[in-house]
Amino acid sequence: MKVKRKKYVAIDKLNEKVDLSLMDKTIKKYKGEEGNIIPVLQSIQEVYGYINKSAVEYVAKKLELSKSYFWEVATFYSQFKLEQRGKHIVKICQGTACHVQNSKSILNSISGNLNIQEGETTTDKLFTIESVACVGCCSLAPVMVVDGETFGKLDEKKAIKIISNMKSNDKIN
Ligand code: FES
User: Fold this and answer.
1) What gap in Å lies between CA 173 and CA 170, rounded to an integer?
2) pLDDT, tens digit, for every residue of 103-141?
3) Is the CB of 95 under 6 A from ligand 1?
4) Whole-prediction pTM value?
5) From CA 99, how far away is CA 108, in angstroms rounded?
6) Which one of 43, 57, 64, 132 is most buried, counting C-beta atoms within 10 A?
7) Does ligand 1 have an atom closer than 6 angstroms to the CB of 138?
8) How far is the CA of 162 from the centre of ligand 1 (A)?
9) 97 Cβ below 6 A of ligand 1
10) 104: helix, coil or strand?
11) 69: CA distance to ligand 1 center in Å?
12) How far away, in angstroms, is 104 Cα from ligand 1 center?
């Protein structure tokens, strides 16, 4: 008889199912290893897009560590995102070169288009806007990076077009 593996699923505060078994590989890899908190948190963020509370509780229990250790580290390092973010991360550079090329207006126009402020996520969980320091392409200022792809020499119109194209692509897919 084939034994079906039990799937651990939690419901998070947004009423979404969280498949905790996605953490099992990480737990196996880091069980009993010293200094495992950061790589485990990185893994949680990679899998769920942010530091999901149910996942922290699950791994802490399985690794026999206090969940408060995880939260201490997660809240200390800015690399860890504590809130659920959008499918698309729109990073708008506010470094000096971009700032003098009016990057603030790019940020404002995308903000207006998506109806969210910097640091927020749209209610459909499609977009998160972040403002970031120099991304290293100053000659292309003003710059934004969407899902890791860099777009330069922007103006408000071009920036909105990029976002609109992404919205249409999401509808098709
Ligand atoms: S300041 Fe924006 S890329 Fe350098």
Assistant:
1) 5
2) 999 999 999 999 999 989 999 889 999 999 999 999 999
3) yes
4) 0.70
5) 13
6) 43
7) yes
8) 19
9) yes
10) helix
11) 36
12) 12
| Interval between CA 130 and ligand 1 midpoint (Å) | 14
Out of 92, 93, 130, 144, mutate this one to test ligand 1's pocket (max ligand atoms within 8 Å of CB): namely 93
Please give the Cα distance from 55 to 13 (Å, whole number).
Answer: 12
If one counts the domains in the chain, the total is 2
Residue 106 shares a structural domain with residue 54: no
Q: How far, in Å, from the CA of 132 to the mean position of ligand 1?
A: 9
Identify whether 48 is part of a domain: yes
Is 35 found in the same domain as 102? no
Does 144 sit in the ligand 1 pocket, CB within 6 Å? no
167 and 98 part of one domain: yes
- Domain of 116 in residue numbering reads as 88-172
27: Cβ contacts below 8 Å, ≥ 6 apart: 40, 59, 62, 63
CA distances from 124 to 10, 44, 166 (A): 21, 22, 14
CATH number of the domain to which 146 belongs: 3.40.30.10
Q: Is residue 166 part of a domain?
A: yes
Q: Tokens representing 159?
A: 């920036």
Across the range 69-82, mean pLDDT stands at 92
